């Protein structure tokens, strides 16, 4: 999915939030924002995906401030938010009628923990009851059938906090299909509040899955720009699960694999592009999503 003008405005708002987290003074904050505006004007962003353009803007800001990871503290807070309550969620999953589906659903709900979108998330959506939450696309049955005949699965991660729910999902996959090898793809460098390798290791994901860096230092995954080792795993995995809107924006154009997407539609641009209403919750393959866009 390529950029639109509204995407540029959204990313500039991200920069404003980032300067708040960096606790810059007024003059320094203004300098950073002017640099972001300058980069926006100089870039033919209509030829880029939103995550790739966002990465270029953040690179320029890093060069100016020297702070390449303004969300480092926030990522730990988000991971701890879920880790501190992990037994609550694990109990809900185990006691449900279908633990695998429930863990998949929590992995989806965790996608609302996002500081890159146009909305600030509400933790009540995670800790509250999930009985009356409807899925716009639900390809769980198809995924389950694929898992029964698969030897490997690649999960491409998204946000901190959400990643803890991914770990609970991986626990259930291994319980039901113990022979499956799970690989967990993470960003190779900071990208907003997306998880990186040190975060995944802190959570404990390395105990249940192989952690691999994608080569991406922006909030998405472009296969033609990824590390060769990751591309090889991507091409040879029986199942690829993509987490989050940023990965959808970059991976939905990839051909050759019917990727299983897990994300919430968080903005009007993605809603218009996909044909899904804003706020839609998706557990679905690309082919199911494409039916909405025509």
List keywords for this structure.
single chain, 294 residues, alpha/beta, Rossmann fold, 2 domains
Report on the structure:
The protein is of the alpha/beta class and about 290 residues long. Helices cover about 50% and strands about 10% of the residues. It contains 14 helices and seven strands. Helix 9 (about 160-175) links the parallel strand 2 (about 150-155) and strand 3 (about 180-185). The protein is globular and about 55 Å long. It starts with a helix and ends with a helix.
* Structure classification: alpha/beta
**Largest sheet composition:** 7 strands, mixed
Helix/strand order: HHHHHHHEHEHEHEHEHEHEH
| CATH homologous superfamily placement of the largest domain | Uncharacterised protein PF01937, DUF89, domain 3
Distance between the termini: 15 Å
Indicate the percent of residues in helices. 40-55%
Topology:
Blueprint: H1 5-21, H2 26-42, H3 50-65, H4 72-83, H5 86-95, H6 99-109, H7 124-127, E1 137-138, H8 140-148, E2 152-156, H9 162-176, E3 181-186, H10 197-203, E4 210-213, H11 228-236, E5 239-243, H12 245-251, E6 260-264, H13 268-274, E7 281-285, H14 286-293
Parallel strand pairs: 1-7, 2-3, 2-5, 3-4, 5-6
Antiparallel strand pairs: 6-7
Helix pairs in contact: 1-2, 1-3, 2-3, 4-9, 5-6, 6-9
Task: Write a brief caption for the model.
The chain is α/β, with parallel strands linked by helices. Helix content is 51%, strand content 11%.
């Amino acid at each position: 999915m390529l950029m639109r003008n509204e995407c540029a405005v959204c990313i500039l708002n991200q920069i404003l939030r980032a300067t708040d987290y960096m606790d810059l003074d007024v003059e320094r904050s203004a300098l950073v924002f002017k640099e972001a505006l300058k980069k926006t004007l100089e870039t033919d962003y209509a030829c880029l995906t939103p995550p790739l353009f966002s990465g270029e803007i953040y690179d320029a800001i890093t060069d100016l401030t020297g702070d390449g990871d303004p969300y480092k503290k926030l990522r730990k807070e988000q991971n701890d938010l879920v880790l501190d309550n992990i037994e609550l969620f694990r109990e809900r999953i185990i006691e449900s009628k279908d633990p695998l589906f429930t863990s998949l659903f929590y992995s989806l709900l965790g996608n609302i923990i996002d500081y890159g979108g146009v909305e600030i998330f509400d933790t009540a959506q995670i800790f509250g009851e999930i009985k009356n939450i409807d899925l716009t696309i639900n390809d769980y049955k198809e995924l389950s059938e694929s898992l029964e005949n698969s030897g490997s699965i690649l999960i491409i991660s998204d946000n901190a906090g959400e990643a803890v729910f991914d770990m609970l999902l991986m626990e259930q996959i291994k319980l039901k299909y113990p022979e499956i090898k799970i690989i967990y793809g993470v960003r190779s460098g900071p990208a907003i509040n997306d998880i990186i390798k040190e975060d995944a290791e802190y959570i404990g994901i390395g105990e249940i899955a192989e952690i691999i860096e994608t080569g991406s230092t922006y909030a998405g995954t472009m296969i033609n720009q990824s590390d060769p080792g990751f591309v090889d795993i991507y091409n040879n995995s029986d199942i690829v699960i993509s987490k989050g809107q940023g990965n959808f924006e970059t991976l939905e154009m990839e051909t050759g694999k019917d990727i299983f997407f897990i994300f919430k539609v968080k903005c009007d641009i993605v809603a218009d592009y996909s044909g899904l209403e804003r706020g839609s919750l998706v557990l679905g393959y690309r082919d199911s999503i494409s039916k909405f866009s025509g």
